[in-house]
Amino acid sequence: MTPRERLAYSPIVDRPPLRLPDGVRLVVWPVLALEHWDIARAMARTVIPPPQGQPLLPDVPNWTWHEYGMRVGFWRLKKVYERLGVSPTVTLNARVCESYPQVVAACLESGWELNAHSWEQLPMHRVEDERAVIQRTVETIEKFSGTRPRGWFGPGLTETEHTLDYLAEAGIEYIGDWVLDDEPVTLRTTTRPLVALPYNFELHDIVLMAVQHHRSDAFYERALEQFAVLYAESAERAKIMAVACHPYLSGVPHRVRHVERTLETILAHKGVVAWNGATILDWYLAQRPR
Q1: At 222, which helix (H) or strand (E)?
Q2: Is the bond preceding 50 in cis, omega lying within 30 degrees of 0?
Q3: CB under 8 Å to 207, separation ≥6 — which residues?
Q4: pLDDT for position 289
Q5: In a 3-state reduction of DSSP, which class is residue 61?
Q6: What pLDDT does residue 258 have?
Q7: Once rounded to an integer, what is the mean pLDDT over residues 161-177?
Q8: Phi and psi for 278 in degrees, rounded to 5?
Q9: pLDDT band at 155 (very low <50, low <70, confident <90, very high)
Q10: List of E strands, the chain
Q11: CA-CA distance, 6 to 202, in Å (whole number)?
Q12: The predicted structure's pLDDT at residue 290
């Protein structure tokens, strides 16, 4: 199915408003991506170009950039979330359970939701057996954590024309790959419906810092501008605002304080709460049963 076959066009102004619980008008959805970058492959992102412009393997400089995030940046961000009482959705390459088990254990000890993020950081179009990789991902996370993940983010938000059908078969209930709405929407698959939760590219540290190369404080400035509009609109209908972080970007010293003051400032407003993906899903399904 094409995306339009899975989801018919629907202007937000034509839909009955979704209502949050009494006293709540806007939900912040914090998302923290934990990934495995295979040193034998080209890196998922690069911070420094290769000498003479020729890509080389192994790419040690860019691999260590990501490795810093798992060795140091994650633990710095963890303190921020805990100080603010925020439980993010952890979108997890399942191979992280093997390569960084202490990190996954720390997420579980904090009660954070584990969301499946494929086996490793490789686009779904490059996977030889997509169905098998999805099953392996879900089963690995379930074995490590004792709980089957309900949500999914594709690496780089990538999907093939079959991904959603394989995800539904594997028991996944929601995705974060579709950045097309301010509200959850229900998608068709060949077996059972999936829900796409509202995600965005605007409050995303890869886009802001690794692609657009903004100053570190741009995270705070853009987030507050986005929040101001959504908060005003939330007087009439529920709004959800995703904020995405990666440890190798948001967990470095010159950025982490801007992430912290962003969440602290927004959550100080009346009627604003932080929910993980599973909580948002359950709220939506109570209003729009499948």
Answers
A1: helix 218-233
A2: no
A3: 201
A4: 66
A5: helix
A6: 98
A7: 98
A8: -65, -40
A9: very high
A10: 26-34, 89-92, 113-116, 151-152, 174-175, 185-187, 194-196, 239-245, 272-274
A11: 25
A12: 62
Whether the per-residue pLDDT at 259 is higher than 80: the answer is: yes
Burial class for 162, CB neighbours closer than 10 Å (0-12, 13-18, 19+): middle
> What confidence score (pLDDT) does residue 288 get?
80
Helix (H, G, I), strand (E, B) or coil at 9: coil
Q: Which domains does the chain have, with CATH numbers?
A: 26-45+55-287 (3.20.20.370)
The pair of structure tokens assigned to 128 is 């030889």
What is d(CA 38, CA 45) in angstroms, rounded to the nearest whole number? Answer: 12
pLDDT for position 287: 86
DSSP class of residue 206? Answer: I
- Any idea which residue has 């657009």 for tokens? 212
Count of residues in the chain: 290
Give residue-wise pLDDT tens across range 83-131.
999 999 999 999 999 999 999 999 999 999 999 999 999 999 999 999 9
3-state secondary structure of 13: helix
Determine the Cα angle at 25 with ends 22 and 29, to 5°.
Answer: 115
Query: Could you tell me where the beta strands, DSSP code E, fall in 193-285?
Result: 194-196, 239-245, 272-274
Q: What is the pLDDT of residues 171-186, one digit of tens each?
A: 999 999 999 999 999 9
For residue 114, the cross-strand partners are 90
Single out the residue of 31, 30, 8 nearest to residue 157, CA to CA: 31
| Alpha carbons 167 and 189: distance in angstroms, whole number | 9
Structure tokens at 268: 């100080």
Render the burial of 123-140: b for 16+ CB within 10 Å, e for the rest.
ebeebeebeebbbbbbeb
- Asked if 259 contacts 250 with a C-beta cutoff of 8 angstroms, the reply is yes
Q: Among all chains, which residue has been given the structure tokens 């690069």?
A: 46
pTM of the complete model: 0.96
